[in-house]
Amino acid sequence: MDKISKLIPNTLTISRLVMTIMFNYCIFEHFTYGQGSTVVLTILFSAICLSDLFDGKLARKLGVTSVMGAKLDVFADLLYIVSSYGMLIAVKVLPAWYLAFVCIKFLEFVLTSNFIKRYDTASRHPFVFDKIGRIVSATFFLIPGVACLLSHSNVIGSSYLINILLYTTFLGGAYSSFERIRGCYMLTKLRYSKVRR
């Protein structure tokens, strides 16, 4: 039972990789050829979100958290976000600059997490999260589904709603990055002031 318990959360995360490929294929079919169902897109998007929501919670509840599981989760998230954004850019639903921003934000997150971990060795988690950054990353996760649904709907001003979401998230992400980089600077400053004493 113990070995099975360890496999359940990672299997859920790996299923997200498969669903990501299916989701991207459905986006391509739907927006390029007008084929495919909005219902299928919605189901896949919901399943991807639920798998992300529950894999970590399940690992913690079963007591089987691991560095590998945390890294697999971040990889699955990144693959979903980058590939679905890329597909939505290819079918002209999202602007290309936003994917560049997401990639820069992810790089900043990894670099600042590694930097902060040098000073906080008590945490076993390989990444360091901040409140605004969590909201921004959750929004990164939701944007592909929201963009698909709004672009397909006949809602007046749906492109404006998508742009408002993108620019709001951009501002939140920029603020989060500023705070994380400032925090790294303060840690460095504190360290050097202790060394001089």
UniProtKB/TrEMBL annotation:
Q: Name one Pfam family in it.
A: CDP-OH_P_transf
Keyword Transferase among record annotations: yes
Q: Give an example GO cellular component term for this record.
A: membrane
Question: Which molecular function term from Gene Ontology is one that the record holds?
Answer: phosphotransferase activity, for other substituted phosphate groups
Q: Could you mention a single GO BP entry for this protein?
A: phospholipid biosynthetic process
Can you tell me where the transmembrane regions are? 33-54, 97-115, 135-154, 160-178
Q: Which UniProt keywords apply?
A: Membrane, Transferase, Transmembrane, Transmembrane helix
Q: Which domain of life is it from?
A: Bacteria
Q: Which family does it belong to?
A: Belongs to the CDP-alcohol phosphatidyltransferase class-I family.
Protein name per Swiss-Prot or TrEMBL: CDP-alcohol phosphatidyltransferase
